[in-house]
Structure formats: structure tokens, C-alpha cells
Queue: 3 jobs
Job 1
Amino acid sequence: MQDKNALKYDILRVIAVAGASGADLGKAAETALAAAVEYVGLTAAALYLWDDEYNTTLTVAQAKSDRSKEKAAELEKELFAKLRKERQLLSAYMSFGGQVPIHSFTLPLLRGEKPFGAVIGIQEGEKSVVAEDVFLEALASAMAVSFSAQRSTDGVDLGQDMLDKERLAAIVETAVTVNHEVNNPLTAILGNVQLLLLKHQDLDEELREKLKVIETSAMKIKDVTQRLMRLTTPRSVEYSDGTKMVDISEEEKEQE
């Protein structure tokens, strides 16, 4: 039997393939959210897409109970939606006290720099959903890429558009693999380095500086894997001797 960690990242592959193949993304998102509830330990999760005026155009939700689904919907309506409109909220992790603590998150679906949807979720109990931030952010990015890939093709050469979608799907599958295979050990490296820097104040300066170099390098690797997951357009740049590589820079603004 596959372990839960492997199954979580298989969810991302399913979303990516659905986006490239033209499959029903609503159904794919429903399956992905149900799996996230199961394997991450959420009590409810939902996907919202909206238009330029923040009017909801699609809602997909999964939960362990009707009450949990209602709690997530209330949180979206009373807090996250308002903060997006009034304060341009993009992402957040929040915890609420009470007899049963509730931990929540909202993560954006971005096309370029512009949000067109969000994935939200809640988790009840002592365990914090922040512990799953890498997977949840990868899930939101995979959904953003897939829904962007199925955007209207009016005025676009369909043959080229299909090639772009297939190329993007290959990039996303690679990014999912990188997030799975690299981020897991990377998180352990980063956590242990930061723990050493925090707890051992008596380290000599040379060793402390080397640990800081490791920490900085690990953070750069994590940033690269996250930018790969946020790609919505398959662009290439010249590397050397005619070899090309995927352009993961975020400097280019969304094309009109």
C-alpha cells in the first residue's frame, strides 16, 4: 500500500493531467479535495473561482460532515472573501480558539499576478494545518495551472495551444515530482539547521556562518520548486550552446 505522503502528491499529478487533457476540472478538483481531506486530515476543503468582480463562478467543496462544510463556507463568506475585496488578501493561515480549536487556510489560484480563485480549508483539533503548508501550496498551484490551461482559446491557434498545454502539463508533472522528492528531505535539512542555529548559541562563528549558508541555499531551492508549481505559461530561455531551460522568473506580467 502506498504511504499517505505518496498518495498526496499523486493528487497533484491527477490535477495536472486533467488540465492538459481537457477533462472536467470540476470533477478532478472534487476528487483532489476529497483526497486532501482524507490524507491531510482536514475536516473541510473548498475551491472557489470568481470573475473580475469577485463574483463566484464555481464552488467545489468536500468535508467530513455537513457541519464542517458549513463552517468552511461561513469562514469564506464572513472572513476570507471580505478580506480579499477590502484588503487584497492573497494567502493566510489562521487559528481560532475555543473548546475545539480550528485551524484554517486560504491560498490563491493565480494567473500571472492576478488571483482568479482560492483553495480554503479547515482542520479541527490540536494539530495545525500549517504543518502541511508545502503540499497545500502545491495543490493550489497545480489547480491554478490546470484551470489556466483550460481558459478560452478564442483567437488562439488551437494546434499551438494544444502543444503549449501538453508542454505545460509535462512541466507541472516534473514540478510535482520535484516538490515531492526534493521538498521532503529539504524540509528536514532546513528544520535541523534552523534548530541548531536557534538552540546552540555557543557555536563558533565559522560553523554558524556555514550553517547560515546552508539555510540560505535550502530556502533558495524551496523557492525554485514553488515557482515551478506556479507556472501558467511554458516559457524557455537560452541556457548555453543552444540549450534551453524553463523560464521560472516571475518578472513577466500577465499577458493581456
Job 2
Amino acid sequence: MNTRFLPRLAVLSLPLLLVACGGDGAPPAMPPPAVGVITLGSGPMPIALEYPARLRGLREVEVRARVGGILLERRYDEGSAVREGQVLFRIDPAPFAAEVARARATVAEARAAANQAQRDRARIEPLAGQGVLSRRDLDAAIAADERASAALAAAEAALRTAQLDLSYTEVRAPISGLTSREALSEGSLVNAEPNATLLTRIVQAERLYADFALPAADAARLRELLAGPTAQDVRVELLDTRGVQLPAARVDFVAPQAGLATGTVEVRAVVDNREARLIPGEVVRARVRGVVLADARVVPKRAIQQGAEGPFVWTVDAQGLARPRPVQPGFASGNFVAIESGLNPGDRVIVDGVLKVQPGAPVAPVSVALDAPPGAPPADASGAPAGSRAPAAKSADGARTAATGA
């Protein structure tokens, strides 16, 4: 290689190097990344408490035999609706009819004996008063009359029992409702004692109960609302497994204590089912509406990050630097979360562009307009009502921002 051209090459390269370095020898500084922020406020936040629930009939009755015998006949269609007092089954009445006849004969015998004792007493009392008969004879006649009267009362009671047993051979519906299939077919032997034989079940399904369980804290808040002036605003929305809206329900019972096994509080709601859309035993979702957090500090779910020490959010301090802030999330409603601790009204929270943030690094905050939590009026990033907002526009990094900027 010819080395006599090296000094000239170095001289020619020096101006190019100076131009590439900007003339002062330092690289150009990168601008701080644009991030979407909201200014934290506080206010009421409607929340929806959602739990699994099971439907059951307003009244569910097991129809059992009250007397034993051979099941002769079923008089209803399985699964059909029956009326209160309708005959469902017939048990062989012959033995009970015979018992009624025997009891009637016993009553007749006891009545004859009682009449004879009354006549004897009526004859002896005047004679004893005249001194013809002794006091002992009078006492014996009175005792005989009283024993005969008692025997007649016992015989009449036995007759009523026999008649009741005979009436129980016709098993009637104790309530109106829907029947299940028969537990025993005709010709089977049913028992009354010691365990009465189950014949069928009846469910009153015109109205249903929706049973679900709440954590103790949620139940306490719900109980306060039901006892307050806004109790009429509390309602229960039911959804089936496909998410289809079902008839609304109302809470009519909150257990006074938590269960020892689960630590949850039982709640019951009543739902109208006259159209028979719901089936007892069905599992649904119960969404309690009307519960409001009075002074909530709300951020979007996307603003909450997970770190080694737990959840946190990025905030922007007065110098425009990004700072992590540990938080304690609380109730969630849609895409929003109420912060129980860690943030104060007026804090600027980063909600967009968090992947570009470094601890203590400067950022360019841009106010972001957010939709309001479900049930609350929309508000802008500063908490102003929707009517005072300027039209939204797209920022350079894709965040929805107010036209006035920040």
C-alpha cells in the first residue's frame, strides 16, 4: 500500500467526521416519550357485584304417604301442574274402611253403656236423698256414669282417627305447583312409619328464589343500602350461562351472620316466573345493581401494573418525571378499578404508554379523556362533566386526548 496518501486522507476525513457529530462532538438528545395521563379525582362509583346463584322454588314440598298400604293408582301426569287439594295417589282403602266400621261399632257400644249409666244415676240420686240408699251406692253410680262418658269419648276419638286414616288413602297435593315423576309405581307397598315413603315432589315455580353468597364486606354494604333511603335502587339482574338477560329479582333476605364453613353471607332474591322461563335448580349469574361507592378514586384497569412487591401505577410528579406508586386495588366495575390506598386526588396517573416509562425518567404527559364507569356520567381527565369536554382527538402515540391538550 502507498503510504504517502495517508496524511491527505486523514485531512479529508476530518471535516466529514465533524459534520456527522453535529459540530460540537455530542449526540442529539432524545425527546421524552409522550404518555397519556389522567388527573385523579374522587366521587361516587356504581359497582356491580356478580356471583353464581342457584334457583329454587318458592315452596318445595315432598309428598309422602301418611298411611301404609298398596299403591293402587296415580291420578296426575308426571311433570304437570296440579292444584292444591287435588288427588295425586290412591292407596288401598279396604283395611281402613274396615277399621272405621269397627270404630263406629265401638262408639255405639260405648254410647249405650253411657246412656245406661246416666239412667242408673238418675234413679239412685233421689233415693239416696231420701235415705233409702246409702251414700256408697250413690258414689258408685256417679263413678259408673263418669267412666261410661269417658269410654264414649275415647271411642269417638278412635273413630275420628280411623276416618282420618281412611281419608289419607287419597294422597292430595298440599300446594299448587309442578310435579316431579312418581317415586313408586302402582302396586308398590308404601310405608307410613318409621320413614314415610316418598311418592313425588311439588315445586311452586310461579316465583323463584335465587340463592347466592356474598363476602362479609359486600353483605354489610348491601345491608346498609337496603336499610337506607336508596333501598328501591337495589336490584338483582339474572343472566343465564349464555349471558342472556333474565327477569329481574329483588333482595328479600340477607343472613344475619356468615357461615362457619364458608365465611360468606347467604342472600336470597325473589324473581317472578309466571312465564315459566326459569327452571328450579338452574344455575345463573346474579348481578347486584345499586351499590355505590360514595368517595371512590377510580383508574382504568390498564393503568395498574404488577411488580415484585405487588400492584403499582406510574405517576408523573411536579418535575415531569415518572414515579412508581404502590396501590391497593378495590372494587372493579367494567374497565375501571377503585383504589383503596396509595393515591390521592390530584395525582397524575399514567394510563397509556406505560411500556415507554422508566423510573425517574422525564415524560411528556398528555391528558386522556376516558369513558366513565358503568352507571356514572362520563367525565374528562380532570373530572369535569361530559358536557364541558372539548371534542376528542388522537395524540401522536394513539391515545384519545382532549383538543385543549395538557
Job 3
Amino acid sequence: MYTQCNHCKAIFHIDMKEVTSSKGLLRCGECLNTFNAVESLSTAIPEKFQNANAQYSDKEKAYINSMDDWQSAKTQSNQQKLNRASTLKEPSTLSSKRIDNTKTTNLFLVSLFLLTFLLAAQVLYHNPTLYSNNVPIRLPEQVEMLNYNVFTHPNESGVLLISGSLQNMAKHAQPYPSLEVSLTDAQSNLVAFSRFYPKEYLSSNTLTNTSLLPTETPISIRLKIKDPGNAATQFKFSFK
């Protein structure tokens, strides 16, 4: 049996099984147009095709006359089959598969977004300093200054040295706090104020990236401050 594409007028030799299984709809192997094969179904090659065939060279005629052979051969490769009219799946079947694939893709994207959001929320919850410029929310517990000495720096003019020790009185280890030093006059008026972070008052051997302030263990400190002069008569230490 023969049929003809209504768009590019290409002629194809087909099997009735193909027409029946596809409900008459075929895809042209030349222009990829979908057409109803039943409308141009014929048991013989159309006359127009035969007349045109006379204009071809012997090589081209041999190729055209071999159409029946390669169409009926069951050993042809998949690529050869794609170059001829192929049966179409029912539109309803193709449409439902596209919808299912779209739903699957949307579900994957939503799930990925939710997982990313939950991960970000956990990171921010356990690291509040990532979104805040303030001192960490958790304040040091029961950290006390045991003793301290203040004296003039032997080599630097206008600088005071403070040495001493602090201790964690809590029952658990905790991060090293910031140390605030307030200098006041005899009337308790603030003369000078300085804040020191652990890396500024601890030695490099004491502080590491994973160091915690141990419990009930004196820790030596040493820091330098600008000498406020005779106006300062009292020192006050606090931890934040």
C-alpha cells in the first residue's frame, strides 16, 4: 500500500498494520508533518510520482524503486525507520506524559527549596552572630577576676600594663568572654573605657579556634591600655 504526505507530497510504502495501530495518523519522514494516511491510501504508486520518476537518472530511479524493499525489510536500523513515515502515539497519551513530567519537575523544585530553607534556618539558629552585629546573645556565666596589677609600661610611654587572672566559676566550660575595663575618678565618674577580646588579653598558646574557658581553673591575662593620667583612681572589670 502507498500513501502521500499532503504537505510535501512525498510518497511512502506502508503496511496496513501501521495505519491501523496509529488510527491512520502518520508522520512524514521528509518534512515531519503529521497527516492522515487513509485520505491518500492507494494500492499503486500515484501517476504523478511515476511520471516524475521518468525524469530521474538511473541511479535516482534505482533508489526510488528500492523503496518497497527497505520498507519491508525487518532488519533495517532504527535510523532508517525514522527517515520514513512512522506511527504516532495517540495525542492523549503524549499529553498526559508531558503533564506528569511537569508535575514531577515542580515537586522536585519545591522540595529542594524547602530543604534549602530549613538548612539556612538551622545555621542561623545555631549562629546568631551571622545576622547580628551585637555581642553574642549568650552572656558569660560566673566569670570573675581573681586579682590584677596595674603598672607603667617599662618601654612604652603613656601606656599602662594590666596583668592578672580570671576564673570560670560555673560547672561547665564556656566560650572566652570579652573583657571590659572601666577607669573612674574618685567620684566614680567614667574617665576611660576599653573592651578587649580574648585574642587581645590571652597568649597565643592559651587560645585556639576550639578553646573554651575551663571550669575552676585560673587563666592568666595581660593587656595594655592608654594611661589616662592622675584622673583615674579606680579600675572596674566586667565580662560580656
